Amino acid sequence: MNKRKVIVIGGGAAGMMAAGQAAAGGAEVLLLEKMKRPGRKICITGKGRCNITNSAEMKEFIDHFGRNGRFLRQAFSRFFAPELMAFLEQQGLTLVSERGGRVFPASGKAPDVVKVLQQWLGKCGVQIKTEARVELLLTTNGAVSGVLCNDETLGCDGVILATGGASYGATGSTGDGYRLAESVGHTIVPIRPALVPLEIGGNLTAKMDGLDLRNINVRLIVNGKRGRQAFGEMSFTKFGVTGPVILTLSGEVVDGLRRGDKMALSIDLKPALDEQKLDARLLRDLEARGKEQMHSVLRGLLPREMIPVCLRLTEIPEDRLGGQVTAQERKRLKAWLKDFRLEVSGHRPFTEAIITAGGVDLQEVDPRSMESLKARGLYLAGEVLDIQGDTGGYNLQAAFSTGWLAGRAAALGSAPAPK
Questions:
Q1: Please, which pLDDT band fits residue 415 given cuts at 50, 70 and 90?
Q2: What pLDDT sits at residue 418?
Q3: What is the rounded distance in angstroms from the CA atom of residue 34 to the CA atom of residue 176?
Q4: Count of helix runs (H) and strand runs (E) in the chain
Q5: Which residue in 309, 316, 400, 302 sits closest to 82, CA to CA?
């Protein structure tokens, strides 16, 4: 009996997992990667440390993908975080869990993840061809029959499309998969940057460039109404804001800006204190340090870089003595500490986005196998799909899980087309 021939397009997390699983399922597998080596985007994830997955329970995990998360339930039920971690450790990669359930290689080096995956592909007998650009999917009677790669026709029984999104184009994710999927009839939900830094108008954030804040709460203000919120860390930059909290909220901001909504961020710098407790704290500080100027008093409340910004926005003279601060000024200070507003003017481009939102419409993909409902023998995995999760290891797990399922299904082949 001849082995099924499977071609995998894309050598990222989803593609490498799919290729290995297809080979483990008995297929003859060719992995086509257009860059000089596979796994380049993996190498820059998690700030070069590679946040592989998260230890959250499945329900919570799926919730981090919003309304499209339920599509992943089938893949996660077959290959989820515990299975991924066990698999990587079997390949010789030691893992560690950190705050927030995030899982990393113990070495702290993302290339180590790529190394063990490549070694595993070698053991599985997967053939890897680099600098291989796929121009076209070939079909026969509604089924994929091969690809046109570097002007050469390569025949096969199944194709797994795992080309990634359109973020970090230098790693090879330039949106090729959307064009290929569309060519066989797939609908592409408009793509846009996700997990992306936000731009703030004016020069306010530039005055605090490089400042990191921890344990703060950020809430979206959409057209003046309170929206989603997130707790954690953020950073100021010359152009605006970034960091885990900002990235988590950025998808909704990007979509809001596209609709023409007015988007703002409300930063609670003292989330552990309600207004009454914060007011009592301010009264104590102002009384205890009544002979000190306000720029000095505020050092007990704020990072040094924020003090000039605070005094300017609350209209309190920096040389005002603590004991001379009026009740009205204290009220303005309290309000600012609980609601530091930043008007969002835009977002950074795809080149700075961690992932891509949008992609192949999930209604056109079978979640039980990742097979296309538009072209038999075509399977889709990873970021090319309209799936996007929060930062914290969720997106890589989705890539590995959908890749695992696509690889297994491609090795078995499609059910016969109905007559």
A1: low
A2: 39
A3: 10
A4: 12, 21
A5: 400
Spell out the alpha helix ranges (H) of 260-382.
275-288, 294-297, 307-314, 327-338
Question: Cα 310 vs. chain centroid, distance in angstroms?
Answer: 32
Distance CA 165, CA 179 (A): 11
Tokens 């003279």, located at residue: 317
Q: How many percent of the chain have pLDDT more than 70?
A: 97
With tokens 């090795």, the residue in question is: 411
Structure tokens at 308: 């000039």
Spatial separation of the C-alpha atoms in residues 409 and 419, rounded to whole Å: 22
For the stretch 102-135, pLDDT in tens is 999 999 999 999 999 999 999 999 999 999 999 9
- Residue in 297, 41, 8, 61 with CA at minimum distance from that of residue 165: 41
What would the two tokens of residue 161 be?
């499309």
Cα 153 from Cα 148, distance rounded (Å): 5
Q: Is the pLDDT of residue 170 over 80?
A: no
Strands 28-33 and 5-9: parallel
- Whether residue 207 contacts residue 305, with contact meaning beta carbons closer than 8 Å, is answered with yes
Q: What is the pLDDT of residue 167?
A: 75
Residue 21 · residue 31 · CB < 8 Å: no
Q: Is 6 helix (H, G, I), strand (E, B) or coil?
A: strand
Q: Write out the two tokens for 100.
A: 């927030």
Q: Please state, in angstroms and rounded to a whole number, the distance separating the CA atoms of residues 242 and 265.
A: 12
Sheet containing 152-155: give its strands across: 134-140, 143-149, 152-155
Pairing type for strands 28-33 and 127-130 reads parallel
Backbone angles phi, psi at 379, to 5 degrees: -120, 145
- Per-residue confidence (pLDDT) for residue 171, from 0 to 100: 63
Strand order across the 127-130 sheet = 127-130, 28-33, 5-9, 158-161, 378-380, 371-372, 365-366
* pLDDT band at 44; cut points 50, 70, 90: confident
Separation between Cα atoms, residue 343 and residue 345, nearest integer Å: 6
Say if residue 262's pLDDT is above 70: yes
The pLDDT value recorded for residue 414 is 67
Integer angstrom CA distances of residue 380 from 36, 38, 174, 365, 406:
23, 18, 16, 8, 7
Task: Report the length, in residues, of the chain.
Answer: 419
- Dihedral angle, C-alpha 83, 88, 89, 92, nearest 10 °: 160
